[in-house]
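Archive entry. Fields below.
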Amino acid sequence: MAKVTVHRKAHFNAAHRLYKREWSDAQNTTVFGKCANPHYHGHNYELIVAVKGEIDAETGFVIDMKVLKDLIKDEIEEKLDHKNLNEEVEEFKTLNPTAENIAVVIWNILRVKIEVKLELTVTLYETPRNFVVYNGE
Amino acid sequence: MAKVTVHRKAHFNAAHRLYKREWSDAQNTTVFGKCANPHYHGHNYELIVAVKGEIDAETGFVIDMKVLKDLIKDEIEEKLDHKNLNEEVEEFKTLNPTAENIAVVIWNILRVKIEVKLELTVTLYETPRNFVVYNGE
Amino acid sequence: MAKVTVHRKAHFNAAHRLYKREWSDAQNTTVFGKCANPHYHGHNYELIVAVKGEIDAETGFVIDMKVLKDLIKDEIEEKLDHKNLNEEVEEFKTLNPTAENIAVVIWNILRVKIEVKLELTVTLYETPRNFVVYNGE
Amino acid sequence: MAKVTVHRKAHFNAAHRLYKREWSDAQNTTVFGKCANPHYHGHNYELIVAVKGEIDAETGFVIDMKVLKDLIKDEIEEKLDHKNLNEEVEEFKTLNPTAENIAVVIWNILRVKIEVKLELTVTLYETPRNFVVYNGE
Amino acid sequence: MAKVTVHRKAHFNAAHRLYKREWSDAQNTTVFGKCANPHYHGHNYELIVAVKGEIDAETGFVIDMKVLKDLIKDEIEEKLDHKNLNEEVEEFKTLNPTAENIAVVIWNILRVKIEVKLELTVTLYETPRNFVVYNGE
Amino acid sequence: MAKVTVHRKAHFNAAHRLYKREWSDAQNTTVFGKCANPHYHGHNYELIVAVKGEIDAETGFVIDMKVLKDLIKDEIEEKLDHKNLNEEVEEFKTLNPTAENIAVVIWNILRVKIEVKLELTVTLYETPRNFVVYNGE
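PREDICTED_STRUCTURE:
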């Protein structure tokens, strides 16, 4: 059967700051600029989850979009939406919540919830001008 | 010569429903939800056709965009625009018109009209939030 | 207090055809072109509901966006999403479901659900290239 | 001379929370939901500043876009970008930073910097799905 | 009958430069910056034409979108697309082709082609970040 | 470490014409249509630069977005923005400035400025409907 990649968009709004706990404020500002602000800033993260696999001959689906949408809602939006990533999300207590790291965290969460035979790619827009892609490589 | 992928956007508006003829209404609703509505619903499909190949040293083109635009118009828009996919498009009389299957049908139509040495990828947005990609794999 | 207009986006997918019951097929095709197709076609309608009023000094809201979002969901999306407008929506049994008329129907439904002191405007995108605005004038 | 409205887009990223200092946590959560989270969340605010006036016969400009762009940068982006609105922006120490109130604050700041004969309107997107408009009314 | 505003998007690509013939190069650069470059630069202009009027009870249209689309094509796109505005468009031989002035020129051309009872507004995007609106005021 | 692709958007406005110096005007018009206009036309080019590599364990970055943004500004925007590509940009004095060729030129400029271990891809929108991708292949 033909292999198709299906994509679903979702979004969450969160606060974060970029810094390394072990560094001084000055060092954090040098490396992370305004993003190191200890009072936090925030973003509307736009997320695209892509799943690649063979079309099911019965349904014509690679994956049921409704199932994918609910999975993203339950596993990602519930966890990250309207949260302070540094303070309230376990993974970022020791990991800097850069767009790169957030994409990897999202991918790891979804990977175990999606059938192994399906390939998974996560695209995360931090702003309309900055975005990252991770596919488990 | 350098290999570049050129993309052209197009669009068509169509009605469809998702269902399997052999299944009962109840079964179709279980699997396809609101998309199984026997009265049909519809979408503005946005299509991106990508063609990859070497730049022609004379023209600086991989493929003449005007030619690609006209090809999409003649082969895809004429066939699908303002149509009921299930009722009026031959391919979907026995094939469920999911985004996945529509992308494959479009790819198959265009593949034979584009030089073999050029790689072809079709991206189809069913809504601004759902889209699929097919490249013949 | 300052008067601000707040806007909320929503969307629904529907099938429709444009025609006048009293006219012949030929006449309908002359006036409505491909949109008269008796097998229907469809659109992803994107809806923007705008509400204008004074900011509440307590909350800082003109209207609670969550309330507005739920109102649009209950009154408009439930009624129109994944429907055949001509066949399944009472208002369009005798009214041609042009973008203009759909916007007026939506406005009329929402008007009685929103406080009189708030001004209401409905913007409806039939496609990314065609849209209409109605404010009760 | 003809009167034209010119618009310039800009953007800033900020953290905020919605709450009323005098209310209990429970009351704040009832009214503001997830937006009351004491750890903050955040947004990519997209801003459109519109200035209406007569075209200058010499230049063909209503206002020099470069001047408008720099004004927005100096007065708004410098003040709000990568900030915690509640903690770091004077105006929001006693004012709830709803989209409505932020738009009014921005309008008040710009109004005194733009010639009186020019009309001013501020559009502020809190997310791609929620936005507000204020024109001093 | 209800009054609705219908909008149609179109686009054209053109070269231009901003300058005043009577001024020195230095003076033009002072006022118009990089836009004064004598070798020209260019834009993808995106145009939205809005027409407001009563819905026709027979058709459900304010104006036939197909008619509006063709009017824009014949009167505006044919005239401006892939042109050098300063060198090849009569109106701009003596008028600086700022976004403001282009919007007024487009409005004047369309105004005489659209029924007097319909209100006309022209929105012109010079870039995705700069746009102007003119309604004949 | 995980390999992530980070993307940064930028833009420049330029004039150009497509033609081959050795060909007659008639031949150029046959091949390049309206794009051969000797008076030039222009575009708002939107550029996406993608850089793929391992996340740095210290910073959580693949590449500092601020550095990437400044690199694009210094090397590409300064060179191409508000320019006539044919007349003012060395590379296009003998090379037809098609979207394909512009993407290759941009890639070549950036490639030597970005660490060899990082993969580079350039996406260039000539219009919102036409775009090309080049990754050095």
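CURATOR_NOTE: Strands of chain C lie at 3-16, 41-54, 83-84, 119-127, 130-134.
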